[in-house]
Design goal:
Radius of gyration: 20 Å
CATH architecture of the largest domain: 2-Layer Sandwich
Strand content: 15-25%
Order of helices and strands: HEHEHEEEEEHHHHEE
Number of domains: 2
Shape: elongated
Strand order of the largest sheet: 1-2-4-3
CATH superfamily of the largest domain: Schlafen, AAA domain
Distance between the termini: 41 Å
CATH class of the largest domain: Alpha Beta
Oligomer: single chain
């Protein structure tokens, strides 16, 4: 059974896999849990160093830190599954988080302010605020229609013709105020007609038309 963990470690850290040597801050681990839940889900291997070396953990202590992060610091709570593996007489905890239908999940930032994180490659970054607002609308709008106007179609057309754009550049391209553009992007994201390429220091919006 240890071969399963070794195969995961061989992949290296990526968007759906993270290694933690140890956990000493439940608020920090909450960011990873929230980022996984907000993006595509993922696995957290505790007791594994960044270079893939297995150090092992005290499973009870580490589990309670993860549980505190998921229940106390993630809002809403992030659900997870846990498996305990033994590799060369060392214990590795596998924490599995599924993509959530209750997005956005927040976790405490550096000043304990609730922040929406997403997972990009092997990092947890702050989600674009418009994406977070779109998730809220998407969650609340079940059974409620969102009307697309000519302005909505115009934004989609611009993104289709010009490719992905930052929020500021898109406002200039469309000759729209930031307030109007934000409302339109929230609607289009809630309808899954747009996608966001999360990045720092800025994110990009692109058409999601098949």
């Amino acid at each position: 059974m240890s071969r399963y963990i070794l195969n995961l470690i061989a992949q290296g850290e990526h968007q759906q896999l993270d290694f933690k040597f140890a956990i000493n801050d439940s608020k920090k681990i909450a960011r990873t849990l929230a980022a996984f839940a907000n993006t595509d889900g993922g696995r957290l291997l505790i007791g594994v160093k960044d270079n893939g070396a297995i150090a092992g953990v005290n499973s009870d202590e580490e589990y309670y830190m993860v549980e505190a992060g998921a229940r106390l610091h993630c809002k809403p709570e992030v659900k997870f599954e846990v498996s305990k593996w033994t590799v060369d007489d060392k214990t590795v905890l596998e924490i599995i988080v599924a993509k959530s239908n209750k997005r956005p999940h927040t976790a405490p930032g550096k000043e304990n302010k609730p922040i929406v994180y997403v997972r990009v490659k092997d990092e947890n970054i702050i989600a674009h605020p418009i994406l977070a607002k779109a998730w809220v609308k998407q969650r609340r709008s079940k059974g409620i229609s969102i009307c697309c106007t000519e302005r909505h179609n115009y934004v989609i057309q611009l993104l289709t013709e010009h490719g992905k754009q930052t929020f500021v550049k898109l406002c200039k391209l469309a000759f729209m105020s930031e307030r109007e553009m934000e409302k339109i992007l929230i609607d289009l994201l809630a309808l899954n007609l747009l996608a966001v390429e999360n990045a720092e220091p800025d994110s990009f919006f692109e058409a999601n038309i098949q």
